[in-house]
């Protein structure tokens, strides 16, 4: 049977409408989030899982939502994710890499905020288990020694690096699998191998701590070997003084961008920037804020989930802007109490179809 060109065109149009992804500003709320793949994996403690964690964001009609920010959060087990925040692609998919911790149930949650309603999305939950370790005859744990903190004592706002040596040479001869550090009664934090990999009987390990409050802190380090043995803690006292850090310079804001530019009046526009204090005092970043046109400053959010480093990438969504030209200005502040100069860019909201284009780069303003 022959099919007319008109019928074929109608069929193609209907198919395209059904298959087309949906921008986050054209969705039918509420949004939902589901696990696509990556759940139920297993691996040795302290290692990255072989497959990425993948979630899909959909609207109420089951259509994929592009441009939605999704945060991945380790809620138990002490592991780490590589880049805690990501944006869904045109198929509504978001991916993340997960490195297992050492303790108990391994669990990661994918979280998001519905841009239309401001309500939390339903969590997508990932769990993982440890590989069983074959018996090696090694029943003795590794020994931790030479624990130091640099600097010690430290000033408020200083980054403090904890270093130690973990050895199993004389306690079974297994390779070191990992090490972790605990500050006071806080959570266990994974340490890094100084040579980049845990693959020897002796390992030098380190971890940099941020945001320690004034006073004395008990810092403890322990190691694990590939036979499954966990060593005893070795502890030192780290003192943070109550004086000032000597940092009198505000952080620098750069790489401000607005995505998309140009945009529709109904679009959500993602403002991103980088705030640095590395070369202006070396304090950690305490926060960042932005304002659109002549409006008031509103807080921005750290891409990795916490303000705890000298360099931070920040972001915030802007919605409901009228058609026309707009400016956005971003500034940061550090833990020494200094507020930096604002850096501004211009962008356009158009009443017609958006014109594809790269985000505009920032210029420094006093």
Describe this structure in words.
With 366 residues, the chain is mainly beta. The protein folds into 3 domains: 22-130, Immunoglobulins (Immunoglobulin-like), CATH 2.60.40; 143-240, Immunoglobulin-like (Sandwich); 252-364, Immunoglobulin-like, CATH 2.60.40.650. Helices cover 4% and strands 44% of the residues. It contains 1 helix and 29 strands. The strands form 8 sheets. Strands 3-12-11-6-8 form a 5-stranded mixed sheet, with no helix packed on it. Strands 24-23-27-28-29 form a 5-stranded antiparallel sheet, with no helix packed on it. The radius of gyration is 25 Å and the shape is flat. The model is unreliable at 1-19 (pLDDT under 50).
Write the layout of secondary structure elements.
Blueprint: H1 5-19, E1 22-23, E2 32-37, E3 41-43, E4 53-58, E5 65-66, E6 69-76, E7 80-81, E8 85-87, E9 93-96, E10 98-99, E11 106-111, E12 124-130, E13 143-150, E14 160-167, E15 176-183, E16 189-190, E17 192-193, E18 202-209, E19 215-225, E20 234-240, E21 252-259, E22 269-276, E23 285-292, E24 298-299, E25 301-302, E26 311-318, E27 324-334, E28 343-349, E29 363-364
Parallel strand pairs: 1-5, 3-12
Antiparallel strand pairs: 2-4, 4-9, 6-8, 6-11, 7-10, 11-12, 13-14, 14-18, 15-16, 15-19, 17-18, 19-20, 21-22, 22-26, 23-24, 23-27, 25-26, 27-28, 28-29
Instruction: Evaluate the radius of gyration.
Output: 25 Å
Low-confidence stretches: 1-19
Helical coverage, percent range: under 10%
Query: Can you tell me the CATH topology of the largest domain?
Result: Immunoglobulin-like
Number of domains: 3
- SSE order in H/E notation? HEEEEEEEEEEEEEEEEEEEEEEEEEEEEE
Per DSSP E runs of 2 or more residues, the count of β-strands stands at 29
- Tell me the β content: 35-45%
Query: What distance separates the N and C termini?
Result: 72 Å
CATH class of the largest domain: Mainly Beta
Number of helical stretches of at least 4 residues: 1
- The spatial strand order of the largest sheet comes to 3-12-11-6-8
Mean pLDDT: 84
Shape: flat
**What CATH architecture of the largest domain would you give?**
Sandwich
